From TrEMBL:
Native organism: Nocardioides furvisabuli
Protein name: FAD-binding oxidoreductase
Gene3D superfamilies the UniProt entry points to: D-Amino Acid Oxidase, subunit A, domain 2, FAD/NAD(P)-binding domain
Signal peptide range in chain numbering: none
Domain FAD dependent oxidoreductase: 29-376
Amino acid sequence: MRNGGVSFWWQQVGLPEPTDRLRGDAACDVVVVGGGLSGLWTAHYLHEADPTLDVRVVEAEFAGFGASGRNGGWLSSELPGSARAYADVAGEDGVTRLRAAVRSTVDEVIGVAAREGIDADIVRSGVLTVARSTAQSQRLGGELTAAQVAERVRVAGAVAGRFDPDCARVQPAKLVAGLARAVRERGVRIHEATRALAVEPGAVRTEHGTLRAPVVLRCLEGFTAGLAGHRREWLPMNSAIVVTEALTPSQWQEIGWSGQELLGDEAHAYCYAQRTADGRIAMGGRGVPYRFGSRTDVEGRTQDWTVESLRSTLTSLFPSLAGVGLDHAWCGVLGVPRDWSASVAYDPATGLGHAGGYVGSGLTATNLAGRTLRDLVLGHDTDLTRLPWTGHRVRRWEPEPLRWAGVHALYRLYRAADRREDAGLARTSAIARVADRVAGR
């Protein structure tokens, strides 16, 4: 089994060589810091709206190196954060508007991919969420019975389920690579292998020179903590994925997964999975949730015990796959604000803006954020700029060692809650409610 190497998705298409490194000081109209989907969508929509703009992207490695090329491939309508946090700002109407905007974004991404000729194995197949205990079933509130779940996928121990049609399967590296190609073809320069050291009004200081611009947009998601002055802004939370060897037709028939729907569960330490285009199962979940001092990995290698934990989850869902081989494992980081809710902001007075904190729902939310940043930068008052995540402010995370201790305690509590519920507790464990309060969710 290969461990690391950025991700299985990138190994499928081949790791790109960084290009167009910044060489010395330069100037442009807009600098986007971060070459993931947030930055690339922002550059795409800004240049589409005004082709005269000199838009440049600064990326430490290569476009799509981070979570954009490592995620589980869920282009979903899931809200990127806490409905309660957004309701505190804009009421229930604001939450409803944000939910609708995210849901419509699924089709927006699919449409852009089609227009730009991006073949990312996209199938609008929906997502099946299953409950495997009474407590999970109460939280899920699903409309599917155990028998109806089994008609889609035969998950061991499933007692209920819910199906959301507004979700698509994606090969993440193909999507971000295709978007980077489309952005370059528009005339946007992506300065790869150019690490940003500091962001300030009117300039981005990098290891190879200073890029000056009246508009500077920070789109670093889980890597935000590596930027000077931002260590406690968003927590770099780790998530890990394993991918199996290609399953045989009889194995697929045994587990009854004949469609392309994505699969998740309602556990507190939840898992997420997809059936890949080449007939494998890619399954993800939490490993070591956080590294001391907001450190992030480089090449995506994950711990052996995390691999075994995900293998155990896979065979718990599908006992008939107990002997299946794992071909690849990797991990990446996502950005988590203190209230677990994403934000998009721009200050015309300073020219500084940002987008991120998607708490694991970034494959869709990045596109909506890019369009929102476009409207904010261009000074347009639109339905997007009035969404409740626009300008959303949240306090910083605690200093170390409180941050490390708190996050690790949090996930121990969630796993303990899952064990109690799996043992027969008929309601959501009080331990999980304590964990939610600690988390600020």
